[in-house]
C-alpha cells in the first residue's frame, strides 16, 4: 500500500540529495538479495532476552536492513498467502506487540552496530547523529525507548524522531494491562492511556501506540497537506486522536512518486514506450491494449479513468 510505496521511493530520493539512508523493516520473507550480516544483538521483550540478527542489501544508494527474529518469518505463509498482522482479517497475532517492540529496539540498534561500507562517501556505523522516521503505529515505541533508555545513558543525545502517519485508522489499541509487556517506565503510561467506546479488543481503558508515538516524537508529519487538515477536523476523521494531534501540531508533506520506477521511457509493463515527444501517439495504442486486456470495447476515443484508493469497509 501507500507505506510500501513511500519506503520504496522516498529513501532513494533522500540518498540522491546526499543523505546516508537506512530503512529497517521486518524480515517477512527469504529475500533473495538480502544477505545475513552475522551481526547479532540481544534485546529484551516481556522480561526475556531475544537474539535478533540483521540482513542487509544495498540498492539505489540505500541500506535496506531486515530484522530477523524468527517470529516475523514464521507467521508468513509463503509469498502469496502471507498474513503479516494476523491469522485472518481483523484478528491480531497475540505477539504483535512483542514483535513490533523488537522492530523498534532493533531499529535503534542498527545505526550503531552495523558496519556498512557500500558507498565511497560513507563508511562504518552511522553513529548517533541520526533522524529516525517512524512510520505508523508499529514503530511508535521507537521514540519511547529513545527517550527513556538511550538518552538517559548519554546515547543518541542529538537524535530526533519524526512520526509519520500514513493511515490514522490503525492505531495499535490493546488492553491497558498490556503496558507491562512493553518494558517502559510508568512515567509514559499517560502517553499510552486511551479510552474509547468500543469493546474490541477489550472494554474500557486501552493502550494506544499511535497516541504515544505522536506525543513522544519531535515532529508529526503525514502524507499530504489535505490529510493533515482532515486529521484535526473532527473526531471521525482523526479517529479519536484529533485532539492529540491538535496539541502537537502536524505537517502534511505530499507523497511523491518514484520517477525511476514510473518512467514510461523504460517501463517493462508498457508494450509501447514513450516520452514527451511521442506521448500523443503511444497513449491511444496503450489504451487499446488495456481495453482489450480487461474486456472493454476497444475504442481509442473513449476516456479511460484510473483511480487508486483504499478498498475497505
Structure in words:
The chain has 313 residues and is of the alpha/beta class. It has 3 domains: 1-127, Glycogen Phosphorylase B (Rossmann fold), CATH 3.40.50.2000; 130-230, Rossmann fold (3-Layer(aba) Sandwich); 263-312, no CATH class. The chain is built from 9 helices and 11 strands. It has helices spanning 2-16, 70-73, 96-113, 141-150, 189-192, 209-216, 225-231, 242-248, 279-294; strands at 21-26, 35-45, 48-59, 62-68, 131-135, 160-165, 173-175, 193-195, 205-208, 219-222, 251-252. The strands form 3 sheets. A 4-stranded mixed β-sheet has the order 1-4-3-2. A 4-stranded parallel β-sheet has the order 5-6-10-11. The chain has a 3-stranded antiparallel β-sheet with strand order 7-9-8. Strand 3 and strand 4 (62-68) form a beta hairpin. Helix 3 packs across helix 4 (141-150) and helix 4 packs across helix 6 (209-216). The longest helix is centred in the middle third of the chain and has 18 residues, at 96-113. The radius of gyration is 22 Å and the shape is globular. It starts with a helix and ends in a 19-residue tail after the last helix.
Amino acid at each position: 500500500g501507500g507505506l510500501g510505496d513511500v519506503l520504496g521511493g522516498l529513501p532513494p530520493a533522500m540518498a540522491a540529495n546526499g543523505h546516508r539512508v537506512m530503512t529497517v523493516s521486518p524480515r517477512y520473507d527469504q529475500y533473495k538479495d538480502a544477505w545475513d550480516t552475522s551481526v547479532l544483538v540481544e534485546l529484551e521483550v516481556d522480561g526475556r532476552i531475544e537474539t535478533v540478527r540483521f540482513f542487509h542489501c544495498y540498492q539505489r544508494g540505500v541500506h535496506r536492513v531486515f530484522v530477523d527474529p524468527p517470529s516475523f518469518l514464521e507467521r508468513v505463509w509463503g509469498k502469496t498467502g502471507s498474513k503479516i498482522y494476523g491469522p485472518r482479517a481483523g484478528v491480531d497475532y497475540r505477539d504483535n506487540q512483542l514483535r513490533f517492540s523488537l522492530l523498534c529496539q532493533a531499529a535503534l540498534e542498527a545505526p550503531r552496530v552495523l558496519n556498512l561500507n557500500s558507498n565511497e562517501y560513507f563508511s562504518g556505523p552511522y553513529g548517533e547523529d541520526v533522524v529516525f522516521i517512524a512510520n505508523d503505529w508499529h514503530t511508535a515505541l521507537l521514540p519511547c525507548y529513545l527517550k527513556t533508555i538511550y538518552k538517559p545513558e548519554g546515547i543518541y543525545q542529538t537524535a530526533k524522531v519524526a512520526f509519520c502517519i500514513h493511515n490514522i485508522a490503525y492505531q495499535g489499541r490493546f488492553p491497558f494491562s498490556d503496558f507491562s509487556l512493553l518494558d517502559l517506565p510508568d512515567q509514559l503510561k499517560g502517553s499510552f492511556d486511551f479510552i474509547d467506546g468500543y469493546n474490541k479488543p477489550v472494554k474500557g481503558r486501552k493502550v494506544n501506540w499511535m497516541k504515544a508515538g505522536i506525543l513522544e516524537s519531535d515532529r508529526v508529519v503525514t502524507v499530504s497537506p489535505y490529510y493533515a487538515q482532515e486529521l484535526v477536523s473532527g473526531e471521525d476523521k482523526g479517529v479519536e486522536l484529533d485532539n492529540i494531534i491538535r496539541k502537537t501540531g502536524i505537517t502534511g508533506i505530499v507523497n511523491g512518486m518514484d520517477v525511476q520506477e514510473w518512467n514510461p521511457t523504460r517501463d517493462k509493463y508498457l508494450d509501447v514506450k514513450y516520452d514527451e515527444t511521442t506521448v500523443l501517439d503511444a497513449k491511444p495504442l496503450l489504451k487499446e491494449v488495456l481495453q482489450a486486456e480487461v474486456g472493454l470495447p476497444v475504442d481509442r476515443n473513449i476516456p479511460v479513468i484510473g483511480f487508486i484508493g483504499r478498498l475497505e469497509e
